[in-house]
Amino acid sequence: MPFRLNLLFFIVFLLFSVLILRLGLVQIVYGENFQREVEKTEDVTINTPVPRGRIYDRYNRVIVDNAPLNAITYTRFQGTDAEERLEVAKRLANLMTIPLSAEFIDIKGSDDREVRQQEVRLTERDLKDYWIMTRPEKAEKKITAEDRQLLKEGEITDKEVYDRQLERITKKDLLELKEEVKVIAIKRQMEAGYALTPQIIKSGVTKEEFAIVSENLEQLPGVDTTTYWERYYPEDRTLRTLLGNVSSANEGLPRDRIDYYLSRGYNRNDRVGTSYLEKQYEDVLSGQKAQVKHVTSKSGSLLETIQVSEGNRGSDLVLTVDMELQKEVEKVLEEELLQTKRKAGTQYLDRAFVVMMDPRTGEILTMAGKQYTIDQETGKPKVDDFALGNISSSYTMGSVVKGATILAGFDSGAISPGDVFVDQPLKFAGTKEKKSVRNFGPINDLTALQRSSNVYMFRTVMEMANVKYRLNGTLPIKSSTFAQLRSYYSQFGLGISTGIDLDNESTGFQGGSDIPGTALDLAIGQYDTYTPLQLVQYVATIANGGYRVKPQIVKEVREPTIREDEIGNVQHSFEPEILNKVTMSKDEIERVQEGFRRVMQTQNGTAYSAFANASYKPAGKTGTAEAFVSSKVKGAKPIEVRNSTLVGYAPYDNPEIAFAVVVPSAYTPNSSHSMSRDLGKAALDAYFDLKEKGEEEVAEKEAQEEVQEQE
């Protein structure tokens, strides 16, 4: 017995000795190495979005702002598995509602449909993935013995087996998910973003939802309640199509530009401008993101969160637009559109445009467009914003381009100021007569513009083509004359890009053939198409003495400020840019300016009836063009209509405002109305009335300051 006890103690001694030796080896020899492994961490820096910059008008009135919204977010930490996320999603589903939509199938069944907001979009694949995850036994039955054998032999992969499972899930299977759709939607949102990046589960949550989720955060790992933002438009129906859109938190980065944004530090779920001003100035409006550093252990556990940078709200844009003028013009535009639609021959009238620009700087003061539609729900007429149509849609503009035709004739040497042609119908072999509205007899260039003679323009182009008129003779005009005339038009911005800093600008369309007779149509604006913005650039070039100025919609970029009632310092100012100087002489341009003055200020002028009493001394040119609209009757021929246009500027001797009015499909043949002239008059009246009002306010303010100084 003593021997065995001693042997036992000896063995215990040896074991303790080995243990002590091993501990010494670990702590003394390799201690530092193991300590470094234990202390090894990973730093992950996450960029979080900040509110976008505001957009102001030229007088610092807010056009676009940010509205704060309560939001619920989820941050997926490394090491969190799908089962844990599912459990959190189930708990959240009991605490909040979430608008959703399901593509491809009706998850509620054909007899139980409901209106769904496009807040969270569920696809058929989302539903099937969830079905497989939550119903493993049923999912196993979707795998056949043949599938298992092929997998064993290496003929197919695990992914291909999973794809076969997905294909075999039926609509009946998915209808089992009727009560779980909200959980699926929440789980999908939770898994949409990167690890350690907050992902919006729902923005715009109610106060009750915000409170109840906040109270249960301990049972919702990764979930947080915070404040988010949404774009807010104080004047929602004004300039809306031109301002553009911002993607939602669920949409994230647009697919067609995802690589572009990812390479610039964006997250996949970041909100970005997707169209027009919001997209064009994304780099300015997006701001400097806040940075948060997450310190994690080697296993992925979150150890610490450090605020690296608070970030800065996006810079603010100051537009050249005068919102008061914009609203006045839009009000008149909407009223005129609704009233004119009641008149005979206006069944195809559905839109109208007014653009106003400073001819000296190119600053756009107003870009108004309205579209007449029928509300699908009420069946009543309504008018929507279509400011975008000023740059994206083009039309035949008619006689408004005759100023460019006269100047092309001057510069080419085909005609000279004061040249006289007899305005009477022209008859060529095998064609209908080409004529003016009436026979004006012998007229010069000034009368041709004043009374809108077509024949004078025809004869000008014929002279450019070196074609002498003979009754019933031929008209041998070559393609080179088309190119020559369009080249002259392009000097004024017709048929080419205006240079405005916006995407998807249309440059119009050229007529499809060079048939000699269509050269005469081109000369009176009835062949090629132009946009309203091209039209205002054209008349501004004539108004300012021959300088084509780039249209400018953004005036300044300003630093962001914390207070809403103040605007920051100027970061960048956009200066006027002259794109080209026309080749016509000063005397030739002044000749056309005089013709335009006579259009609006002399009794035989085509716009005299509308502008006779205008104190601001306008000049301009009217236009009517033949056009066609598609018939709703299948196989029927296009229906002939008339486009009505007007361009001008004021005062004629020192222009400070230029404008273009375009009313497509204004009326059918054998009917007419004065909508384009009424719109032009109302727009100029609004501009000069607001200018006078502003001058009075400035004078009053200066007088008050002077009194205060004296006191």
Explain this structure to me?
The protein is an alpha+beta fold. It has 3 domains: 40-70 and 235-319, Penicillin-binding protein 2a (Domain 2) (Alpha-Beta Complex); 77-192, Orthogonal Bundle (Arc Repressor Mutant, subunit A), CATH 1.10.10; 324-559 and 571-695, Beta-lactamase, CATH 3.40.710.10. It has 25 helices and 22 strands. Helix 3 (82-93) crosses helix 9 (181-190), helix 17 (402-412) packs antiparallel against helix 23 (586-601) and helix 18 (445-451) runs parallel beside helix 23 (586-601). The longest helix has 36 residues, at 675-710.
What is the element layout, followed by pairings?
Blueprint: H1 2-29, H2 31-39, E1 41-48, E2 55-56, E3 62-74, H3 82-93, E4 100-102, E5 120-122, H4 124-134, H5 136-141, H6 145-152, H7 158-168, H8 171-174, H9 181-190, E6 199-203, H10 207-215, E7 223-232, H11 240-243, H12 258-262, H13 276-280, H14 282-285, E8 290-297, E9 302-309, E10 316-319, H15 323-340, E11 351-357, E12 364-374, E13 381-385, H16 389-392, H17 402-412, E14 421-423, E15 441-443, H18 445-451, H19 454-464, H20 479-490, H21 516-523, H22 532-543, E16 547-549, E17 554-558, E18 570-573, E19 578-581, H23 586-601, H24 608-611, E20 619-629, E21 639-650, E22 657-667, H25 675-710
Parallel strand pairs: 2-10, 4-5
Antiparallel strand pairs: 1-8, 2-3, 3-6, 3-7, 8-9, 10-17, 11-12, 11-22, 12-13, 14-15, 16-19, 17-18, 20-21, 21-22
Helix pairs in contact: 3-9, 15-25, 17-19, 17-23, 18-23, 19-21, 20-21
